[in-house]
Design goal:
Blueprint (H helix, E strand, L loop, with lengths): L2 E5 L8 H6 L4 E5 L5 H5 L5 E4 L6 H6 L5 E3 L8 H11 L4 E5 L7 H16 L3 E5 L4 E5 L2 E5 L6 E6 L3 E9 L3 E6 L9 E11 L4 E6 L7
Parallel strand pairs: 1-2, 1-5, 2-3, 3-4, 5-6
Antiparallel strand pairs: 6-7, 7-13, 8-12, 9-12, 9-13, 10-11, 10-12
Length: about 210
């Protein structure tokens, strides 16, 4: 499996856990997302975008990283361009780094929708801010390897049927969850959590270092 990490311009908290997740990944930076490379201790193999959010000092710091510039008047985001480049290079697994939180809610939501679209196309996708991790959930199951006591949520993007949550404070068995329901927010893991779904689309968000629900 070839894993590519896309460095996006959103907020990022670098942790040992995040570094372990990214240990076998290849990297592509999307415009201002290049600022995370130093904190992660990596050198991306490609830097794409219109470079409107990359400072002069950032450009001077990374003069040897190959760049693929695009005009500002483009119909897609820098992140989407970076993902397309990763897929062209053979990516089967994609990690969107700096994809959650930050000042732009529209960008964070777009990253979630993009992740769902990629999952529908057969790609394995993860989103992370370092503090929160997220995965699209379609028919099938996800195993969250999180510590007991940490928070996680299942966000329904459609009506969900056959939703099962195991090894959690609030388990469910083949439950039907209506779109917009808050029932599956802020659950608490009792160790690794298994989540399965018979039909529908959802995003699973975990906060592996957040024990406020204990």
């Amino acid at each position: 499996m070839t894993t590519f990490a896309i460095l996006l311009a959103g907020d990022l908290t670098v942790t040992d856990r995040l570094k372990a997740v990214l240990s076998d990944a290849r990297f592509i930076a999307a415009d201002g997302g290049m600022r995370h490379a130093e904190a992660l201790g990596v050198i991306p193999e490609l830097w794409v975008g219109d470079f409107d959010s990359a400072s002069q000092s950032l450009s001077e710091k990374w003069p040897d990283v190959p760049r693929q510039p695009f005009p500002p008047q483009k119909a897609v985001t820098d992140g989407e361009i970076a993902v397309s480049e990763a897929i062209a290079k053979g990516a089967s697994s994609i990690i969107l780094v700096g994809a959650l939180g930050g000042e732009r809610s529209d960008h964070a939501l777009m990253h979630i929708f993009q992740a769902m679209s990629l999952c529908l196309e057969g790609h394995k996708v993860m989103l992370t801010s370092g503090i929160e991790d997220a995965w699209p959930l379609l028919t099938g199951e996800i195993l969250l390897d999180v510590p007991g006591g940490s928070l996680f949520s299942v966000m329904a993007l459609t009506r969900l049927t056959g939703l099962t949550i195991e090894n959690a404070r609030y388990p469910l068995t083949e439950h039907t969850l209506e779109f917009g329901s808050s029932r599956t927010l802020s659950n608490v893991a009792e160790g690794p959590v298994r989540i399965s779904l018979q039909s529908g689309k959802a995003i699973v968000i975990s906060r592996p270092d957040d024990f406020t629900g204990v």
